[in-house]
Design a protein that fits this description.
The chain is an alpha/beta fold. The chain has a single domain, classed as TIM Barrel (Alpha-Beta Barrel). The protein contains 8 helices and 8 strands. Strand 7, helix 6 and strand 8 form a beta-alpha-beta unit. It is globular and about 40 Å long. The mean pLDDT is about 95. The structure holds D-xylitol-5-phosphate and zinc ion. The site of D-xylitol-5-phosphate (DX5) has 23 residues, from strand 2, strand 3, strand 8 and helix 7.
Amino acid sequence: MYFCNMKRIAPSILSADFGNLQRDIEMLNSSQADYIHVDVMDGVFVPNISFGFPVMETLHRYATKPLDVHLMITHPERYVERFCDAGAWSVGFHLEAVDDPLPILTLIRNKGVRTCLTINPDIDVHRLDPYLSEVDMVLLMSVFAGFGGQKFIDSTLDKVRYVHEQIQKRQLMTLLEVDGGVNLQNAPVLFEAGADVLVAGNAVFKSNDPIDTIRQLKV
Ligand code: DX5
Ligand code: ZN
């Protein structure tokens, strides 16, 4: 049987140079990046504020890679459709930010956009179980949402193995994404553990050669 293990990288635009945003987007366009990860923070769900629709518009205008939107906001139900209309390829929000994720997933799906559910490192990974068949992607945070450049939390690895096993056992197509502190050292281990997509912010943008770093993350 032909087995294709896709290693996908989603550089986080949060770590880009916002004074040269078009240049950085075009750099990603010319790289082997599979998606552009878009970190939206509201200063309430997380103790930081990043950016919103004006930046999303710029990304949509210049990016040729799909936009993987990660909402770190309360009341995502108020904004998911607007992110879909703004050109998102996928829209994800935090399970712990909502009472019932299902109606919000429906709002996204009805826009023809892929769905993603995510959890912070202190949320029991088993809480994702009922939703694995309901979403296109699950995102395991390997740092606490809020800031780029944090250290990878090692215990994430067991969670990656667990979720991967669940997805395999149930023969689902759900993608498994990992976000936070990903670098050239832990990327191969994460792919080996079953991750499909790795987000990388600082590892890409603070390197001397971001295009080559993206290539190396996929090796
Ligand atoms: C953290 C964000 C991450 C972050 C990744 O709240 O969700 O996407 O920007 O950046 P690095 O790879 O630097 O940890
Ligand atoms: Zn993120």
